[in-house]
């Protein structure tokens, strides 16, 4: 009887395994998603411990820190890391990586000037005064993020998915271990920040050591003339794509920072946990799909642009199969599940997740597809999307302040606005591909 029940399931698993083995793209997704699964298994297992070591207020301060880092990452490399994947010559691609390093250094210096001159006032306005004594740590985190972004793009260009997966797993182990130790010592929000920086140190060190040992071309002298010519060749990335990404990251960071300024660190912490436990795990899986898709989209854009539509259609179906069932389950049992796992003080975070589910479904399925605007060099359309999304977010929070809305109502308004924004992104992607050879029937 058991064999009869399990036979169809085993057949499906066998077919999936066969498809993965036959497809380079699916193998890449499997490797990165496998690493992501290990990382998230560790994080989910430790989350009930973390929520008892750190309260909502500490999570709120850490969320503000992450939001600031997110905004900074948009400008760290001048968006030149996107060009690493599409440059045809390996020698020139190394030059683009060097260009990213230089841009990261300049961005970090600017960040240090801002934090050391105005950081205390900024942190006070966001109810994140725990960050006031450690502006240098925040600057180090910014530098490490830019460094890892550049090297990760190079790893993807060379289809080193195993290296990327292993590095992410080890980074997460270091990250969680340091945060656990700091939490046990009562370090509060600072402990969460130190753990994040420790994980970034490991990631950068591991990637740098690998490329230094196995790619001897990195030891050659930097060709300044080549780097300058590449900066001019890919000027559209800092001119158009970087502002678009900056606006996009600011828009993503606004909700938590607005929560912190309007409702205090505790409500910001509840919102932050909702993202950490639900959106981040699903987002990392879809991010793995997006990373592999970005490499594949870059290849198709160079060699067979007419195949882009069919590839995107398959990617959408894969993402929906991953995200849909997970979010449906969370919508049903969210508040009770949060209270059971994390304690009664975290029940409101489960309510926030339930309200955000429609937005999460659209965002997690559509965001990875936006890479097609990069590889087809239609950065202007991405800028249109981010400006529109920014306007919608501004309207939501102005309305929330005028209405003196509760945090839950504010979350509902935000979710509605984001659904509209990602529907606009779908239309922009279809519009961008309209001029590329291929049948519209491929979308159906």
- Give the percentage of residues in beta strands: under 5%
**Helix-and-strand structural type:** mainly alpha
Based on CA inertia axes, which overall geometry fits? globular
Radius of gyration (CA) equals 22 Å
Element pattern in H and E: HHHHHHHHHHHHHHH
> How far is the first residue's CA from the last residue's CA?
40 Å
Tell me how many strands there are.
Answer: 0
Detail the poorly predicted runs: 1-23, 437-444
**How many domains, as an integer?**
1
Q: How much helix is in the residues?
A: over 70%
* Overall pLDDT: 79
Q: Count the DSSP helices.
A: 15
Reported for the largest beta sheet, the result is:
none
Task: Describe the structure concisely for a colleague.
The protein has 15 helices and no strands. By secondary structure, the protein is mainly alpha-helical.
Explain this structure.
With 444 residues, the protein is mainly α. It has one domain (27-436). The protein is 83% helix and 0% strand. It is globular, with a radius of gyration of 22 Å. It starts with a helix and ends in an 11-residue tail after the last helix.
Which terms would index this structure?
444 residues; mainly alpha; 83% helix; 0% strand; disordered N terminus; disordered C terminus
Write the layout of secondary structure elements.
Layout: H1 2-22, H2 24-53, H3 56-76, H4 90-125, H5 135-157, H6 161-184, H7 189-214, H8 224-233, H9 236-263, H10 265-303, H11 308-342, H12 347-366, H13 371-375, H14 379-403, H15 407-433
Helix pairs in contact: 1-2, 2-6, 2-10, 3-5, 3-7, 3-9, 3-10, 4-5, 4-8, 5-7, 6-7, 9-10, 9-14, 10-11, 10-12, 11-12, 12-15, 14-15
